[in-house]
Each structure stands twice: as C-alpha cells, then as structure tokens.
Amino acid sequence: MKTAKGNLVANILTEKCPRCGEGHVFEKKKFFQFPVMKKNCNVCDYQFDREPGYFLGAMYLSYGLAVLQGLITFLTFYFFFPSVPILYVAFTIVGVIFLFSLKNFKLSRIIYIHIFPW
User: Fold this and answer.
1) What are phi and psi of 78, to 5 degrees?
2) Which of 26, 46, 73, 97 is within CB 3.0–4.6 Å of 41 for a Cys-Cys bond?
3) For the segment 19-71, what is each residue's pLDDT rounded down to a tens digit?
4) What residue segments make up the domains of the chain, in order of their start?
C-alpha cells in the first residue's frame, strides 16, 4: 500500500486522505453544519466508508477527546481561577465540550482512518 505524503499529524489535522495525503476526507460546509464525509478520495479513489459500523471505534476516540478537553478546562480553572464557583466551572466544561463536538466528530474519524488504513 502506498503511504501518505507529508507528516502524519499534519495530514490528520488538515483532514487529508490517509493514502495520498492530498484529498480531503470531509466536504466543505458552513461553520455549524453537521460534517458530511465523502465516500471516496477525489485524488486516489481511496474508500473512506468501508462497511456499516466501521466508525463505531471512532466514538471512543471522540469520547477521549471530549474528556481531555474537559480536563484541560477544569485544570485551567483550578490553577488560574480558583475563586470561580464550581457551578460556573461545570457549565464552562459542558460549553467547551459542546463547542468542540463537531470538530471532535471529524477528528476522531480521521484519526481512526489513519490508525486502521485499508
């Protein structure tokens, strides 16, 4: 199998194909619209969606990303703003997780594709 061009981390963060490193995995949409994944890469015809239920494992990655973001938010409040009431901290954590939810969806699927190339 042909390996992707460029840096692995850069390909993941820029949402590129795991085989060629040039084609985009998701269609370009407006800011807060649900991401739509392409079926195949426009450049190398790599099949992104392989079978029903393939991306169930990506849910674990998305969950891990959300926990990490919540933990970073909590630690930021704990060390830099210790006098903020805990209720505000909890609402801020929920807000941060909600704000990054669409990005986590895309990022978890792209990481999953790069972990298990076909």
Assistant:
1) -65, -45
2) 46
3) 888 999 998 877 667 888 999 999 998 998 888 888 899 999 999 999 999 99
4) 8-115
Instruction: Please give the single-letter amino acid code of residue 101.
Output: S
Contact call for residues 6 and 43 (beta carbons, < 8 A): no
Cα of first residue to Cα of last residue in the chain, in angstroms, is 8
- Write down how long the chain is: 118
Q: Counting Cβ atoms within 10 Å, is residue 39 exposed (0-12), middle (13-18) or buried (19+)? A: exposed
Residue recorded with tokens 């269609």: 27
DSSP state of 110: H
Q: Could you tell me the two tokens for 84?
A: 């903020």
